[in-house]
Amino acid sequence: MSPLVEEEAMMTPPMVKRRRSDIPRSASSSKDSKYQLRKFYYQRYILFSKYDEGIQLDEESWFSVTPENIAKHIAYRILKSLGDKEQYTIVDGMCGCGGNLIQFARISPKVRVIGVEILSERIDMARNNAKIYGVEEQCDFIVGDFCEVMKNLGPIDAVFMSPPWGGMNYIEHKKYSLNMMTPNGFDLIRLCRKYLTPNISMLLPRNVDKQELKEFIASLHDADTSYDLEENRVGHKVKTITAYFGNLQDPDSLTDSDNESR
Ligand code: MGP
């Protein structure tokens, strides 16, 4: 099967009819935006394999939720790098509608996930979606600005962040700077290290400026400034890059390495 046919097959399970009314409506009237959202709708089973069971997303979630196979891989990798423990507490700092949070909880019943999100409507969606995957009991939700919430979270094992990249046009930049994120990506890393843990993972665009990130990490002036970067794919296509810091980095991979997500 060619990669494209394979990808199409993953998107359209048998017996499910597409209904025009299911296609998300864009809050903006731009044709581009409508086209883009349609693209994500056609990828709905890649985003959530249980989409038909009542998964809820708003406009921003459609284009920023992590595809399920990538979210599952990140969860697996983070848990593995934390070693054997009785219980794990993982914070998803910008949990949105719950794509990553759900996979953290699914990876082991020993995982407790704290999902932080600034919009309460999105927390409702994340709770609904976690319920569909049968993991809502493992999830706690906090509505608030993560930069503030993190100051009072207490001990945790790892933090994951999938911040907004400034909309769907992020790819038009030849090199994407973490300064383009809101909140600023470099500030997020600094704050997490200060208030939470050095065990940080962050979802980045595939056009991220790797040199800038390397220089930023080197400037942090402490012993633990190594990290690794991993390309994440759906089929053969690179969709995102995940950065792992602190104990989350793979001891077998060198800084700046590119490992394929499975
Ligand atoms: P994409 O821009 O649709 O690339 O985003 P794709 O699918 O390669 O499209 P094409 O038209 O270039 O072929 C790919 C993935 O990046 C999305 O499915 C999301 O998981 C993630 N992503 C995209 N955006 C705009 C964001 C964002 O703002 N924040 C986060 N955290 N993830 C995003």
Task: For the structure shown, list the relevant keywords.
seven-stranded mixed β-sheet; 10 helices; binds 7-methyl-guanosine-5'-triphosphate; disordered C terminus; 262 residues
Report the structural category.
alpha/beta
SSE sequence, one letter per element: HHHHHEHEHEHEHEHEE
Shape: globular
What's the mean pLDDT score? 87
Could you say which small molecules are bound to this protein? 7-methyl-guanosine-5'-triphosphate
Using the CA coordinates, give the radius of gyration: 18 Å
Terminal CA distance: 19 Å
Number of separate helices? 10
What's the SSE blueprint?
Blueprint (H helix, E strand, L loop, with lengths): L2 H9 L19 H12 L1 H4 L11 H6 L3 H15 L5 E5 L6 H9 L3 E7 L2 H13 L6 E5 L2 H4 L8 E4 L23 H11 L4 E6 L4 H9 L8 E8 L2 E9 L17
The structure holds 7-methyl-guanosine-5'-triphosphate.
Could you write a compact summary of the structure shown?
By secondary structure, this protein is of the alpha/beta class.
Walk me through this protein's architecture:
- The protein has a seven-stranded mixed sheet, sandwiched between helices.
- It has ten helices and seven strands.
- It is globular, with a radius of gyration of 18 Å.
- The protein has helices at about 5-10, 30-40, 45, 60-65, 70-80, 100-105, 120-130, 145-150, 185-195, 210-220; strands at about 90, 110-115, 140-145, 160, 200-205, 225-235, 235-245.
- The structure holds 7-methyl-guanosine-5'-triphosphate.
- 7-methyl-guanosine-5'-triphosphate (MGP) binds near residues 63, 64, 65, 165 and 203.
